[in-house]
## 1
Amino acid sequence: AGPGRAMRAAGAARGAALAAAAVTAVALAVAAWRRARPVREVLFFPSQPCCIEALLAEAAEPGEPARPCPCPLPSGDTALSRLVRRLLSARRSLDLCLFSFSCPQLARAVQLLHRRGVRVRLVTDAQYMGLHGSQIGRLRRAGIQVRHDQHSGYMHHKFAIVDRRMLITGSLNWTTQAIQSNRENVLVVEDAEYVKAFQDEFERIWEEYNPASYIFFP
Amino acid sequence: AGPGRAMRAAGAARGAALAAAAVTAVALAVAAWRRARPVREVLFFPSQPCCIEALLAEAAEPGEPARPCPCPLPSGDTALSRLVRRLLSARRSLDLCLFSFSCPQLARAVQLLHRRGVRVRLVTDAQYMGLHGSQIGRLRRAGIQVRHDQHSGYMHHKFAIVDRRMLITGSLNWTTQAIQSNRENVLVVEDAEYVKAFQDEFERIWEEYNPASYIFFP
């Protein structure tokens, strides 16, 4: 019975190892499929007000246990938290083309990416960047490059491109009023054709709004 | 030679018939492929001002020779003419969800569709529908159903759905200022998943803004 028991034990161990290998293979395949599947998401606003401290903390120090936030807001799954998650997924670059940017929560997310070494570029509208509550000054002071128009027409786009790969675009200006009170939409599209069209538009505007080309009237 | 000539003539006739059949088959295949290929288009504004009389005339009386328009504007291929073409492709329904609608050219296109029997529904923002230049009154007088919010927040969407099949959405308000002077984007997407998300949002808003549910304060 001795050798038989040893053989059974060896067989059981081999079976367990095989099962573990199979589970790992399936997990890897699922992860690869998730990575490969392009993001396609539609967000509608108004969004419930929510706390994004846990998201920001996780992005700032990945893997660290999150300290509980004392604020009374829920930290659930909302249109705002989804938008923040998409932005915080940036690893290399974030190109922002925003008519109006006065939401402090989104400004903190952008500042965090900048600190983490993501190359942030921001194009905005000259008339709106100086309004009360605008986050443009804060972002510039943090060292983020900002360019704006010199025209009478508005720079009315509201889009972001994450890592030249993911387009985030819609009707939503990045203001707390729009996020919490308006009917708005945001499309999240990981599609090379659409991303290229918007990336080209961004580069055109970025060059056109180069301060070296400003025209000054006497 | 008599029977030979007749046989040659019959052969030539058969050849011509075969060639004609082949040309027809290729044309049908190309048409089917065009129909099957979903529309994917990005329009950037500002658009050159352009004359859309020929487009409207062709939509009003298909096949009729277009009368030349006396206006000095070019009738070339612009972002505005492309947008108008997409709208005029509607055969059954046009659902509009527009923060601001003051462009007379787009209002004429919508009115034409209504006259042609397309079911037009329009949702708009209460604060903006009464502004100078708004086309909402004109469209209502023409018999088009319009609903609006009763909120302090804005109904800030800017999208259209053609035949429950094609989504037209972006940053562009339907104003002449936006079309001719602003930096704007419009996505045209024939994609069942995105269309369904926006169609559902439209139906939610349409029901929520039903005048039967208005709340009146004393």
## 2
Amino acid sequence: MSGHQPTPPGTPNVTEILADWVIDIQGADIPNEIRYEGLRTFVNWVGCAVGGASHETVDAALKALMPFSGKATSSVLGRAEKMDALHAALLNGITSHVLDYDDTHLKTIIHPAGPVASAILALAETRKISGYDFITALIVGVEVECRIGNSVYPDHYDRGWHITGTAGVFGAAAAAGKLLGLNKQQMRWAFGLAGTQSSGFREQFGTMTKSFHPGRAAQNGLCSALMAQAGFDSSERVIEAPRGFACVMSDKQDWSEIIDGLGDHWEAGLNSYKPFACGIVIHPAIDGCIQLRDELGDRVSEVESLHLDAHPLVLELTGKRDPKTGLEGKFSVFHSAACALLRGDGAPTAFTDEVVRAPEIVALRDAVTATANPDRHSASVRIEAKMRDGTTVTKEVERALGSRDKPLSDEQVTEKFRVQSALVIGEAATDRLLDIAWKSADLDDVAEVARVSSEAVRKKGAAA
Amino acid sequence: MSGHQPTPPGTPNVTEILADWVIDIQGADIPNEIRYEGLRTFVNWVGCAVGGASHETVDAALKALMPFSGKATSSVLGRAEKMDALHAALLNGITSHVLDYDDTHLKTIIHPAGPVASAILALAETRKISGYDFITALIVGVEVECRIGNSVYPDHYDRGWHITGTAGVFGAAAAAGKLLGLNKQQMRWAFGLAGTQSSGFREQFGTMTKSFHPGRAAQNGLCSALMAQAGFDSSERVIEAPRGFACVMSDKQDWSEIIDGLGDHWEAGLNSYKPFACGIVIHPAIDGCIQLRDELGDRVSEVESLHLDAHPLVLELTGKRDPKTGLEGKFSVFHSAACALLRGDGAPTAFTDEVVRAPEIVALRDAVTATANPDRHSASVRIEAKMRDGTTVTKEVERALGSRDKPLSDEQVTEKFRVQSALVIGEAATDRLLDIAWKSADLDDVAEVARVSSEAVRKKGAAA
């Protein structure tokens, strides 16, 4: 009913096809290996949400918004606070992304879990949802956002849109709509409401507002599904309309990326998990510098300068020469390489204000140079360390740890979770949370994961 | 601290200049005639908010969102429900726009009051704000959104953005930030948070989601100011950054429209108020058809067909040939002209589902044709009525009622308020509300306006 501008001849009904698929697909239609990747996606997300929960970004958001929260049904993971489901979706989206340590769909640099898992775990605390249905919805939501991202990437991203927010809101709406049991028309409306809120600029990288994007996408996607269920109507063709998402926000529109092979080919199976707490493009440099440190042993102190031969995106996204804060450090390949070489660290502890200002790291950072090499694979780097004696040591990283060709094992996902979560809720609580997170696909009530988090925080509070 | 992409040489610090102005300006710096236009803007907005309050769009939004509302501090004007201030801002933004009957900044087709007044009246119910300060903040907010709109119009709008939402969120943030007493850095952050949520597609015209846009802009702008106050940081150059608002969402960026003559030239003084409950571009046709009806008297039944020679935007925006619902009727110049000629009506009563389907109106609607004439002023139209006897009657409208050259008088604003409000809250309550609305600039506590609205609804409920 919506618009009077016709789509060009031959344009498929992308929104309708996608909405139908979201509603029709059953958990059993999803191959086991994809379901298992969905579980890994969720476990990694829980660890990141807890790991980021004590960040000052989260304190500021809670200070501003707690006075407006409705009935406190839903947990802010890793904290004592509960909020209404919409606000909890926002907060968990912020916490899970604030350390830049979450998951990545490498084709689009979307961080898929933040918008989707934050929306549906908050929802799951308001009604009983099984772990099986939850993982189904999570995978469906991730599939939707990554396919929509593929259809407009890279033009959409190059233009300045933070694609985790802009595409993520569709994924959150899809996953929430699936769990709410929307009919197909309501799902089209939910996409309409979600799409019309698609937003978030890359200009925000390096500020608290970057992690606000997946949070708001989670909240807005959930809100869209709830409103559509209540009969709030919207365009039923928001993705493909001439004045809709893909045409307004991108010069590239490849509909086949959205509708071809739905249910056969799975973007949700391509998710990857960051071993290091910063933008994925710096990972080869950190991986290589840590290897170099291990190989050099005591001689690491004799490194005079570093030169990186890297993919062009490395300098474009993380070329900050003079970071002043921990957050800014995540956008400096120079800091990241220096810290990896001198401390062997790429975890959240490498990106604190204190470490970014540490004199010996600043000194080496200033002696790091980089070349953008368009022929280089984005998961690779060549590092040349010039030693004080004039010799050069070279390290070639073919594929960085955490890339598609070198994914984190379950043990590495667990270890990553353990390190960051223990800093926030302690080791005993982390063990309990890890245990239930890995079992979440089999839970009768997936909200149990959130309850274990809240109990852990309460016990820690009581003990302190 | 935000981005590493430099702005092109010569780009002024638009965000900083605008934020400084918002914080520095005092009520006494605003000329009396602009302050009075601010009062008219507010009175017209209150009438529209009450007038739209019983629409099914509002019922659906409340059904979905009331379960998530926080402490019920703030009124949904014209209804019994109260919600937390953020949700009330959303709901009042929806109600005040849902009938397409609100105010218009004609240069940009922004409807300025919806995002701004909705945000700050909801806020005013949470703390004491004088009518004087409220009108100052309203004018500042309107000025900000219209100037930002000017800087990117028409390219931004032509691309498909619903500019009332995309620019409105800045206005809401400015007005709320002013009343919250933000410092200058916080105001820049508030703009950063607001800008990164700028969204809303014209594809939504004709659906409930159109009025969601000013509502969400109000809510998001208020939220941005609250978060900035709590220390949630953001880009401090969101308007002018290469990956910020104006460059990402428009090919045109005219910074002078934003920063030149601040405090001297007032866009807020150019606001206009719709005499008819639909898109402004149809107003000349409705005005002319009502005049024609008056002139023809009984002969109106002999009109066989109508031809309109109109500005090109009329067909582009309101060319819907076959509207099925009242909302769609607002986007049909054919329906609007037929209804104005046959019933003399351009009020909300002309845009109900029933009237849009009335056989005699449908019959004449199908006999209305229109030509897009690029030489014609947007506030004018020539109407040729072909009579059954073969003769032709012509009506030339030089400037439509409600246009800048033919503004509504205070009495006409009052009458418009009275008609639409009485349908929702009754005549006695409407009189009380009108009385206090016109006095609002002098109130010690501007929230009194909202309280009178709530009392009126309660009394009506008790009487029923």
